[in-house]
Design a protein that fits this description.
CATH class: Alpha Beta
CATH topology: TIM Barrel
Order of helices and strands: EHEEEHEHEHEHHEHEHHE
Number of strands: 10
CATH superfamily: Aldolase class I
Structural class: alpha/beta
Helix content: 25-40%
Shape: globular
Strand order of the largest sheet: 2-5-6-7-8-9-1-10
Length: 297
């Protein structure tokens, strides 16, 4: 679902025209793009020479370009998350990953050139596990290898337990202008179910810190969880609005791609998956509820 944007602030960064005559373009119409479906075979496995797409990139009329950088470490493994991540174990492990990531960014510039970039998203995992120095090193690699003169959005994903003023300052120093953190739900019952162990007090304190340092803080919410009723959804919406964020990204829980651990937790709780019609109705509820408080989808 598209982010809900505060009308009062109206950030222009979200008004992206991908093509001059078309507002939407399939993500894989611009090469080189590979899809990884862990733990299944990926697109790269079908190519004899994995560097070939970089050597012969197709010309395109696309006017906007974005990059995504993945930091696959987490302090806590949330059981609803389908993305590639692993348990954070040591600082040297993260340091090795950052070094390899920077080396890959430097290397691929030999094939891609110094591309113009309009948006950057650093996600995970938990990117806020990086130290201020590692954030600085990553920022230097980005500015060294990409042309950022038309950059409009630079989002960094954080988790409230690992965020700090020093880290946020390092993010600001490398040009980050939007911070996103995943509350997912304020319900203590669902937070326990999903292995979300940050406290409400930590969430509120982190939100206040983010609001004081960035103009475009964002919070992620899930909906359509097993057993969720409209009252619980309204409660999450109101709690998210109270954090005074600029945007809220809302996502339906994905029962198809969710790890087995989430489905087992739901079975132990004795709940049934949310019916499709109810999840659809929740989508309409979200739109009308955010609109009623001055936020539009």
């Amino acid at each position: 679902m598209r982010p809900a944007v505060d009308r009062a602030k109206g950030p222009q960064m979200f008004d992206l025209q991908i093509l001059p005559h078309q507002s939407v373009i399939k993500f894989n119409h611009q090469l080189p793009v590979f899809n990884w479906f862990y733990t299944f075979a990926c697109d790269e496995d079908l190519i004899e020479d994995r560097l070939a797409p970089y050597l012969t990139p197709k010309k395109t009329e696309v006017l906007r370009r974005a990059i995504y950088i993945h930091i696959p470490f987490c302090e806590t493994i949330c059981n609803f998350c389908p993305y590639q991540r692993g348990k954070y174990t040591s600082d040297p492990e993260v340091e090795q990953y950052v070094s390899a990531l920077v080396a890959e960014i430097d290397f691929k510039r030999n094939f891609l050139g110094r591309c113009d970039v309009d948006a950057i998203f650093v996600g995970g995992g938990t990117p806020s596990l990086l130290s201020p120095r590692q954030i600085e090193v990553l920022g230097q690699a980005i500015s060294r290898n990409f042309d950022l003169h038309r950059l409009r959005e630079f989002t960094f994903e954080v988790e409230v337990k690992s965020v700090s003023r020093d880290k946020l300052q390092a993010m600001r120093d490398i040009g980050v202008n939007r911070i996103s953190f995943g509350v997912q739900t304020f319900s203590e019952e669902y937070r326990a179910l999903f292995s979300l162990d940050a406290t409400r007090h930590q969430i509120v304190d982190a939100a206040a810190l983010l609001n004081s340092m960035f103009s475009y803080p964002n919070v992620d919410l899930l909906y359509g969880m097993a057993g969720q009723d409209p009252g619980q959804l309204y409660s999450d919406i109101n709690s998210a609005v109270s954090l005074q964020r600029t945007t809220v990204d809302v996502y339906p829980i994905n029962n198809l791609s969710a790890p087995r651990s989430m489905r087992r937790a739901i079975e132990r709780a004795g709940w049934m998956s949310c019916p499709r019609q109810r999840a659809c109705n929740f989508g309409f509820t979200l739109t009308s509820s955010f609109a009623s408080v001055g936020t539009h989808p």
